[in-house]
Amino acid sequence: MSGELIPRAAIIQRGKDLAERVMCQYWRCTLAPHNLEEGRKFDKLRETWAEWELQALAADINLEIEFGDTLLWLRPHKPKPVQAKRSLSLPELVLIPRLKRARVDLDTAGASNIWNVGY
């Protein structure tokens, strides 16, 4: 029984040390947002965190109890497809009806009258 607790405690301690390093590097990146070297170190630490997280889950460690809200800052960010889309600007929104009309005009006029978009 005690043989299981020692590695588990060591895994948790390594995770807490790694979490502290990741958070320190996060703050370094916020102080110098355009420093590529600091950003690369931060990305490597987050990847190391992801590997450690898999190891901790294999050891049946409940990460939400051990780390709480800090998990959001420690995990690598993967943008969702919905977040990756950008909204259209006002000039782009104004052009949408004109583009639709131009497309209809091109279909009816043929390729010879390509520059007449009918504004």
Essential attributes:
single chain; 72% helix; 119 residues; elongated; mainly alpha
Could you characterize the architecture of this molecule?
By secondary structure, the chain is an all-alpha fold. Helices cover 72% and strands 0% of the residues. Helix 1 (2-31) packs antiparallel against helix 2. The mean pLDDT is 76.
Topology:
Layout: H1 2-31, H2 36-58, H3 63-67, H4 71-74, H5 81-84, H6 90-109
Helix pairs in contact: 1-2
Provide a brief overview of the structure.
With 119 residues, the chain is mainly α.
SSE sequence, one letter per element: HHHHHH
Counted beta strands: 0
The main sheet comes to: none
Any idea what the shape is? elongated
Mean pLDDT value: 76
Classify the helix fraction into a percent range. Answer: over 70%
| Radius of gyration of CA atoms, rounded to a whole number | 26 Å
Parts with pLDDT < 50 across at least 5 consecutive residues: none
Counting helices, strands and paired strands, the structural category is: mainly alpha
Strand content: under 5%
List the total number of helices.
6
N- to C-terminal distance: 81 Å
